[in-house]
Design goal:
By secondary structure, the protein is mostly helical. It has 13 helices and no strands. Helix 3 runs antiparallel to helix 6, helix 8 runs parallel beside helix 12 and helix 8 packs antiparallel against helix 13. The two termini are 30 Å apart.
Length: 384
């Protein structure tokens, strides 16, 4: 699936849908942010529960999502510069989110214990990054022949994903009954809520930093080149965060991993505020993405271990919608308002410092209200 998405992205690089540059009008960027929320409006209320309850389990959902991507990509051929690309792109995004949620819900079924979740998610993240880089080269060469040529490569990969998905664990379909009170309590446990709120903050920081850097660098010398370098370095930083997380998990709990990511980002935010300059902004952007990757893997592990097994996809759908909303709302700030570079860096340091303080206070409060039992820092019994 990752290879197919990478090839499709290259094919759409010059299309009406993805031709937006950092110099685009702010109104168009606002429209883009609004459109990025549209797939989640479908995924959260509809797709999540369907994934959990579909006969055939989550494996079938992955197969259908991959097959759907192949069909949608086939329909895109010859429509790269047509307005009909928009509904097809929307369908592709919905299917992509459906696959992503199904994948996250399936991970616990292929690991021996909850302690292996971070490493499993890390491998998936690293594999996605490596495959994306590897496929971009042949897809880029095919685009020299035609804008639609990489789409044929994407179709081949999506069909391959259908075949590979048949080897996944079948999973289970839960009953059609509404969630029990116990399941609702699990979804609102202090540990799960604290992790989700921290992930909101991290996603918001990522969205803010991306658009802040994009618009601020417009006024800097060689701003476009610097922005491209920042995006490339941030991609490598995300892969570094994915690689580093399993090593951190062997020494730290998921909550401590998230707290450490907040601390690193707070320090870097205040240091780059003092240092300033384009170089500082690029370094902060890389730190943001590395910290967000560590936080994301810890968060996914918490959801996969603590959320009710029968409603795990629904939980991921809800949390992903909330995270995307945080990314959009925070990203709107530098789009709507002109923020100086060092002021933006300071805002990131302040936001993560406050997040770190709330994280610690929430953990202590959770312990206190449970009469001394560390539910905020504890975990459910391990499997296997």
């Amino acid at each position: 699936m990752t290879a197919g998405e990478a090839a499709m992205t290259v094919a759409l690089a010059n299309s009406l849908f993805l031709s937006m540059s950092p110099d685009a009008a702010r109104g168009k960027v606002v429209l883009f942010l609004a459109l990025s929320l549209a797939p989640f409006a479908v995924v959260s209320p509809l797709i999540g529960p369907v994934i959990d309850r579909m006969k055939g389990g989550r494996r079938l959902v992955v197969c259908l999502a991959a097959a759907g991507r192949a069909i949608v990509t086939l329909l895109m051929i010859g429509r790269i510069d047509s307005l009909t690309l928009f509904p097809l792109a929307f369908a592709a995004m919905v299917l992509s989110k459906t696959y992503s949620i199904s994948k996250s819900a399936l991970v616990p079924t292929v690991v021996k214990s909850d302690s292996d979740l971070v490493e499993a998610n890390s491998r998936l993240g690293l594999l996605a990054g490596v495959v994306g880089f590897a496929v971009a080269v042949p897809a880029g060469l095919l685009q020299l022949i035609s804008d639609s040529a990489p789409l044929f490569l994407a179709i081949v990969f999506f069909i391959g994903a259908v075949v590979s998905a048949t080897q996944l664990p079948r999973g289970e379909r839960v009953s059609q009954a509404p969630p029990t009170q116990a399941e609702r309590d699990e979804l609102h446990s202090p540990r799960l809520l604290r992790a989700s709120r921290t992930m909101w903050l991290m996603r918001g920081v990522v969205g803010f930093m991306f658009f802040h850097l994009a618009f601020w660098l417009r006024d800097q010398k060689a701003g476009t080149l610097w922005f491209g370098f920042a995006v490339g370095l941030s991609t490598l930083a995300t892969m570094a965060g994915n690689a580093l997380s399993p090593m951190l998990r062997r020494k730290l709990h998921e909550e401590t991993m998230m707290l450490s990511a907040l601390l690193a980002l707070t320090i870097c935010g205040f240091v780059t505020t003092y240092v300033g300059g384009v170089t500082g902004g690029v370094i902060l952007a890389a730190t943001v993405n590395c910290s967000a990757a560590i936080c994301r893997l810890a968060f996914e592990s918490v959801v996969q271990s603590d959320a009710p097994d029968a409603n795990r996809a629904r939980a991921f759908a809800v949390f992903e919608t909330q995270n995307q909303l945080a990314w959009v709302l925070a990203g709107l700030l530098p789009v709507l308002f002109r923020i100086p570079g060092d002021v933006g860096f300071a805002l990131i340091g302040i936001a993560t410092a406050l997040g770190m303080l709330i994280f610690i206070m929430w953990g202590r409060f959770s312990i206190r209200i449970q009469g001394g039992r560390a539910i905020g820092l504890g975990r459910r019994p391990r499997r296997g």
